[in-house]
Amino acid sequence: MRAYRSLVGQRGVPRLVVAATVTRLATPVLNLSLLLAVVAATGSYATAGLVLTGFSVALAVCTPVIGRLLDRLHPRPVLLALLAVHLPAYALIVGAMLRHAPPAVLVGGAVVLGASAPPAAPLVRSTWSAIVPGEHLGTAFALDAVLTEVTVVAAMPVVAGLVALASPLSAVLAAGACTLVGALMLLTIPDLGSHGRDGDQRHDGGGRGGGGVLGPLAHGQVRVLLGIAACDMTAFGCMFVGISAVAAHAGESGMSGVLLGVYSLGALVSALAYGSRRRDARPRRQLAVLHAVSVAFLLTTSLTSALLVAGALLLAVGLVSGPRDTLHQLVLGDAAPIRQRTEAFAWMSTFMWIGNGAGTALAGHLVTWADGRHHTSFLAAAVASGLATLLSLLLRRATERGEPAQDAPPREDPVAPGARPGQRSTVDG
């Protein structure tokens, strides 16, 4: 764990880690608690579904727009402006549920809530490059992936505990408190939203926040990486439904949470292990190999109905996904124009939301068509991972055609994962 001790010793990192943890806990807690709170207030799952859809769509659409503002303007006034809208939106939707307001009011409040949500995850990811030297970026992004996984897993018991002790509305308020505390902590980070420690102007897009209307989407490397993100989350959405189906088919519906926990455990352990060492191998090549291995495990999972075997295979899929997700962030952070990095990570969040929604919807139809059998959903997950593999290879071919890339062959010293071209480092054994 020497790499993590060295990372945490960097100025501003402890505060950034705490802020990232608190803010990322808010979204999964809000998703689950908002569903329960609306059902409790209206008695309608249909209304709850509309509220969550309004929130999710507004979040997915507005996050890249806010990301561009964070890149072009100073992050602090943007965050404060967002909080000035976001917190009253919480008050609006909570008050509407207490007063049993019409569904349209609840949906409207959810839309404002999603549209004004501070994009903490993209901002944190873009800030890593400002406060962490290049030789520590691999460890930083590995820790970032672990924090994401931990907060998603922790959200379920947090909501369950708050609902049991108080009410679903208390969990909604807790999500708002997490957002407020985390955003205020981000405001104390000295180099929040800065564009790198070394003033690197590589494929800068023409000045602060340049790049025209498309922003980072004008760069082919970024578009391919966003496509990979969508495929990965489509695969996850299919796998999520498949996990529920395989448990139900075995007559152990309650085991779906255990199987998902096994997958998350694998992702946590592998991401931590991957970030603890430096590697010379080119990240894009590793990305293609890891996706191909995911395809093999998902295909094998589609062939089994035994819970024990499925659990072992899902653990293997998780062990692959930890390093893969870390590499994805590293490569995207390096491929994006320096002054459009926050927007690029914001687009990644949007594509992930889209992919997850598409995956769960597709797998739901496939499982229904297959009379509750899980095989089709895991096959669909394998197809999505296969497409991500092909896109990873396309990314390498684009690199060979001369686009700026993190893993271009070095002239002298090897460039470690996460280090920018021209930034040398030694390989840590």
Automatic annotation (TrEMBL):
Keywords: Membrane, Transmembrane, Transmembrane helix. InterPro entries: MFS, MFS_trans_sf. Residues 401-429 are annotated as: Disordered. Pfam families: MFS_1. The chain crosses the membrane at residues 12-39, 45-66, 78-98, 145-165, 171-189, 224-248, 254-275, 287-320, 376-395. PANTHER family: MAJOR FACILITATOR SUPERFAMILY (MFS) PROFILE DOMAIN-CONTAINING PROTEIN, PTHR23542. The keyword Repressor does not apply. This is Arabinose efflux permease, MFS family. Residues 401-414 have a biased composition (Basic and acidic residues). It comes from Streptoalloteichus tenebrarius (strain ATCC 17920 / DSM 40477 / JCM 4838 / CBS 697.72 / NBRC 16177 / NCIMB 11028 / NRRL B-12390 / A12253. 1 / ISP 5477). Gene3D superfamilies: MFS general substrate transporter like domains. It comes from the Bacteria.
